[in-house]
């Protein structure tokens, strides 16, 4: 079964967050966006919904938010090459993202990690091909 995936995050500042994700090169799907939030389209089946905090909470009124900068999950973005990872991270850092760990390079994967403007955790990686 194929399903579309929507990951939801909240933001304290929709315009600043939208500007950040746009400047790091991700595609905003305008027909799913408004002043309360925006949709980042990773591909035709996977999306990131970044919503203003009260709008985020309106979907599940009993939801309890963790303290800021406490994570039980993170979002991983696979890139086409090590060069793409480094180029993407350069944009992230230029636009206010925070690199959280040194780059890791082993026989299987190269990855780097960052936090966005709202301190949501991301990993950007390239999975090396094995012969």
Account of the 3D structure:
By secondary structure, this protein is an alpha/beta fold. It folds into two domains: 1-59, 2,3-Dihydroxybiphenyl 1,2-Dioxygenase, domain 1, CATH 3.10.180.10; 73-131, 2,3-Dihydroxybiphenyl 1,2-Dioxygenase, domain 1, CATH 3.10.180. It is 22% helix and 37% strand. The chain is built from three helices and eight strands; from the N terminus they run E-H-E-E-E-H-E-H-E-E-E. The strands form two sheets. It has a four-stranded mixed β-sheet. Strands 5-8-7-6 form a four-stranded mixed β-sheet, with helices on one face. A hairpin with an 8-residue loop joins strand 2 (27-28) and strand 3 (37-43). The mean pLDDT is 92.
- The ordered H/E elements are EHEEEHEHEEE
Enumerate the spans where pLDDT stays under 50 for 5 or more consecutive residues: none
CATH fold node name of the largest domain: 2,3-Dihydroxybiphenyl 1,2-Dioxygenase, domain 1
The CATH homology group name of the largest domain: 2,3-Dihydroxybiphenyl 1,2-Dioxygenase, domain 1
- With helices defined by DSSP (H or I, 4 residues minimum), what is the helix count? 3
User: What is the domain total for the residues?
Assistant: 2
- Morphology: globular
Strand segment count: 8
CATH class of the largest domain: Alpha Beta
- Main sheet properties: 4 strands, mixed
Structural class: alpha/beta
For the record, the CATH architecture of the largest domain stands as: Roll
Write out the strand line-up for the largest beta sheet, numbering strands in chain order. Answer: 1-4-3-2
* Overall mean confidence score, pLDDT: 92
């Amino acid at each position: 079964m194929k399903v579309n995936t929507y990951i939801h995050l909240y933001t304290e500042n929709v315009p600043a967050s939208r500007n950040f994700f746009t400047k790091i090169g991700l595609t905003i799907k305008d027909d799913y966006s408004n002043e309360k939030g925006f949709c980042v389209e990773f591909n035709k089946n996977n999306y990131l919904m970044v919503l203003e905090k009260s709008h985020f909470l309106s979907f599940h009124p009993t939801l309890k938010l963790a303290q800021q900068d406490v994570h039980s999950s993170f979002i991983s973005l696979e890139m086409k090459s090590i060069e793409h990872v480094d180029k993407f991270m350069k944009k992230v850092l230029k636009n206010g993202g925070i690199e959280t760990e040194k780059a890791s390079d082993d026989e299987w994967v190269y990855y780097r990690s960052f936090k966005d403007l709202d301190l949501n955790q991301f990993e950007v990686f390239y999975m090396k091909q094995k012969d």
